[in-house]
């Protein structure tokens, strides 16, 4: 792989005079070493619960808005963009849980047009 990338880079330099910036080594691109964000588990839950609440809608976008502490609980905040028929709308999903046990205390939804 490294030789192939080097050959392409050298060809581009030779024919165009343009050098490409160095790319990461193949070892750096190893998917086994890519860390899953802490909020990924909660994002899956947010999408699952949103799909249950809006079964006729398609989820077309997803954004982790962040997290916050609420007393001894933690809240993960997501914004999902949905499309149903010809209407698109956003839904903020807040998942409140105990960070020690990961027990969900509540899931709330708030629609938005932005």
UniProtKB/TrEMBL annotation:
It comes from the Bacteria. Pfam families: DUF3889. The keyword Signal applies. Keywords: Signal. Residues 1-26 form the signal peptide. This is YqzG/YhdC family protein.
